[in-house]
Amino acid sequence: xxxxxxxxxxxxxxxxxxxxxxxxxxFFPSAKDAWFLMSEHNLQHVPLGLVIIRPTHFPGxxxxxxxxxxxxxxxxxxxxxxxxxxxxxxxxYEENPGRVLLPPGAPTNNFDFIVTLVAEKxxxxxxxxxxxxxxxxxxxxxxxxxxxxxxxENPNSPGLTVSATDEKENGKVKSGKLYLTHMKLKxxxxxxxxxxxxxxxxETGLTNYYDFSLTWNPRFFASLRSETTARPAxxxxxxxxxxxxxxxxxxxxxxxxxxx
Length: 260
Hints:
The protein has helices at about 5-25, 40-45, 85-90, 120-135, 185-195, 220-225, 230-240, and strands at about 50-55, 65-70, 75-85, 100, 110-115, 135-150, 160, 170-175, 175-185, 200, 210-215, 245-260. By secondary structure, it is α+β, with helices and mostly antiparallel strands. The chain folds into two domains: about 30-135, no CATH class; about 145-255, no CATH class. The chain is globular and about 55 Å long. The two termini are about 40 Å apart.
């Protein structure tokens, strides 16, 4: 064998080995379980240079799961623990999980994922990992789809107070209550989409800034994170403000996931 052909063959072999190592690092469960603690402090100390997706190691966890960010000016860090593919796609494409439309046959099991990079457009690396693992890409499209419409049920509810013009937007928990100050109702719809995994549109017709408050404790917070109790908990929250959600259809922007 001539020397040039030998060098080419060696280069190909090295490339294949390197590719195999990269795939193993990204897709197989070689990551430490300790990296997936739901703690911002912990995420800040996870090694840099990771792009990992794996089947979850925490299938029995119902409360200690979700997506967490801990980015700084110098690096980008995001971690998902025991989350469905919909949440992985939402993170990778910077969309609300409630507006992710998965294709038929998509995996129904949950995943752990982590990205810790010092790079421009780090989420594009997560998108590429998803494509390599599942063959999925996604793009935004405006579609007519089923939604939940936020509507006024009691316009005289004392729980919905128009803000003073000199107030500033704020949110805080104090003495067992959550206080939201100087916010428009449209601010709430994104949060409800994330909780209920369904598009939510504002059909109240209310354009003022408002102050809200409601009882807030660990038990109520846990109920919002459970698929079986999330809707009753949201309905309870909205009733305090004289609002409610009704099934409807609307033309909304969705993240449509497709397989190559």
